Automatic annotation (TrEMBL):
One GO cellular component term: periplasmic space
Record-linked InterPro entries: Fe_hydrogenase_HydB, Fe_hydrogenase_ssu, Fe_hydrogenase_ssu_sf, TAT_signal, TAT_signal_bac_arc
Superkingdom, natural source: Bacteria
Every Iron hydrogenase small subunit domain range: 31-97
Pfam family name, one: Fe_hyd_SSU
Subunit-structure text: Heterodimer of a large and a small subunit.
Keywords, sorted A to Z: Iron, Iron-sulfur, Metal-binding
Protein name stated in the entry: Twin-arginine translocation signal domain-containing protein
Entry-linked SMART domains: Fe_hyd_SSU
One function term, GO molecular function aspect: electron transfer activity
Length: 112
């Protein structure tokens, strides 16, 4: 298809307009995301500054965690890095994508 000069200038004008509009939309999206991050940071800092909101600020100060690891009455008596706590509290990744693909191939509809 051969384009004359008038059609070329018209197409360039339309593409420039779309480029400017999309750039403006990207700037607005980035600005709103940064506003959200700022609001989130302020709320976290305000909660940290006010000890009335959260009385327990560190997990190692939580009385339930201390009770679990207590050598006399707790369940995880070998400590935070012990063998039992490692097996009970740590997770491991298992790749199940082949099984999901096999189910989909059989016609199962998975809702996730």
């Amino acid at each position: 298809m051969i384009m004359n000069r008038r059609a070329f200038i018209k197409a360039c004008g339309i593409m420039t307009g779309y480029a400017v509009l999309s750039l403006n939309m990207v700037k607005e999206a980035a600005a709103s995301a940064m506003d959200f991050v700022g609001i989130r940071q302020k709320s976290v800092y305000d909660a940290d500054a006010n000890p009335k909101i959260y009385k327990i600020r560190k997990s190692q100060d939580n009385p339930m965690v201390k009770k679990i690891y207590d050598p006399k009455t707790g369940y995880l008596v070998d400590g935070p890095c012990g063998n039992l706590s490692y097996h009970l509290l740590h997770t491991h990744y298992v790749d199940r994508s082949a099984k999901v693909a096999a189910l989909k191939a059989k016609g199962f509809k998975l809702n996730f």
